[in-house]
Every structure is written in C-alpha cells, then in structure tokens.
Amino acid sequence: MPVRAEEVYDRFDADLGAFVRSRVGDPDAADDVLQEIYLKIHSRVGTVKDDEKIAPWVFRVARNTVIDFYRSARPTEELGEVPESPPDPEEEDLQLELSRSVRDMMEELPPEHREALHLTEYEGLTQKELAHKLGISLSGAKSRVQRARTRLKTMLLDCCHFELDRRGRVLNYYDHAFAPDDDVLGEP
C-alpha cells in the first residue's frame, strides 16, 4: 500500500525541520525550503511503494531541495558593456565597395525584381507589406524577392570570387578577370 503524505508529515516533521534548519541559516528561508520539500513529497509520495524506503527517499528529497536552494541563491554577476572593437578601415572600404557593386548589379535586374529587392532589402518592407504595396499575392511577392535574390547571387558569383570567414562575412573579393595565380589559392 502506498505511503500517504500525511503519514510522512507525522513521521518526519520534527526531523525534517531540524535537518533543514541545520543547513539553512536564515529561519524564514528554512521555512520556505521546508514548504518546498513538503510540496515535492506531497506530489510524489505515491511513487514510493515500500514503507522501508520512505525515510531515505524523504531525506534525499530534502537534501536535493536544500542544494537547489543554494544553487538558486548564488549571486550572479552582471556583465558590463562589452567594448566594441574599433572599426577596421580596410573592412569598411571593402563593404562600401561591395555595396556599390551590388547596387550597380541590381540595376541589371528586370524592373519588377529590382523593385521587389529594393523595397524589401533597402526599404525594410516585409514580404507581406510588399505584396500589399504592389497589389499582388503574398506568394507572388515571395517569388519575386526569391527570384531577384537568386539572379543577383548568380551575377555576383559569375563576376567575382569571394573569401568568407567562418561566419559567412566577406573578407575579400576580386573580379574573376583579375584572379590571383592558382598557386596563391593553393590550387594545382
């Protein structure tokens, strides 16, 4: 027959109180921990079938609850602002140059694709807002933006070779017509 929570309270209240108070110095906090222990016992006591195992189980719940109390009471240190590294002028020049090239290539896109890409990427419209503005369906707007991105990507890759860092940021790029020697790239 499973043990009932009332039986646990009657049998262990004094010992549990002493156990918790000996480990938690603040009397109010000790009372809170004790209440937490009783809540856990009440919700899980039906899982203990053997009366001989109830005492070890009760004190394991108590010990773990005290440990949880101290873990949650650990002071946390708020991090200050992380200083930004100064911008790399060479990287800024590269980004500016690349940005100009992309804008020039966008001019070669069909007008409906150029407009869709400009409104979403540069004006910040969502694809839903784009659909509303152009009077087309949402799927039509998504399709236009996707086709424009695909065409622009193809144009960029046909034109240039890009060197990326592990996060996908452009480190360098050069026109295929002015590619460095294969030896520099490590190719045979």
Would you write up a description of this structure?
The chain is mainly alpha-helical and 188 residues long. It folds into 2 domains: 5-72, Rna Polymerase Sigma Factor, Chain: A, CATH 1.10.1740; 89-185, Arc Repressor Mutant, subunit A, CATH 1.10.10. The protein has helices spanning 5-23, 27-44, 54-72, 89-106, 111-122, 127-134, 138-159, 182-185; strands at residues 160-164, 170-175. The protein has a two-stranded antiparallel ribbon. β1 (160-164) and β2 (170-175) form a beta hairpin. The relative contact order is 0.07.
What structural class results from the helix and strand content? mainly alpha
Q: What is the domain total for the residues?
A: 2
Rg over C-alpha atoms, rounded to the nearest angstrom: 33 Å
Strand order in the largest sheet? 1-2
In DSSP terms (H or I, runs of 4 or more residues), the helix count works out at 8
Beta-sheet strand percentage?
5-15%
Number of strands: 2
CATH architecture of the largest domain: Orthogonal Bundle
Question: Whole-number average pLDDT?
Answer: 82
Please estimate the helix content: 55-70%
Distance between the termini: 79 Å
Major sheet details = 2 strands, antiparallel
Strand and helix order: HHHHHHHEEH
CATH classification, class level of the largest domain: Mainly Alpha
CATH superfamily descriptor of the largest domain: Winged helix-like DNA-binding domain superfamily/Winged helix DNA-binding domain
What name does the CATH topology of the largest domain carry? Arc Repressor Mutant, subunit A
Give the CA-based shape.
Answer: elongated
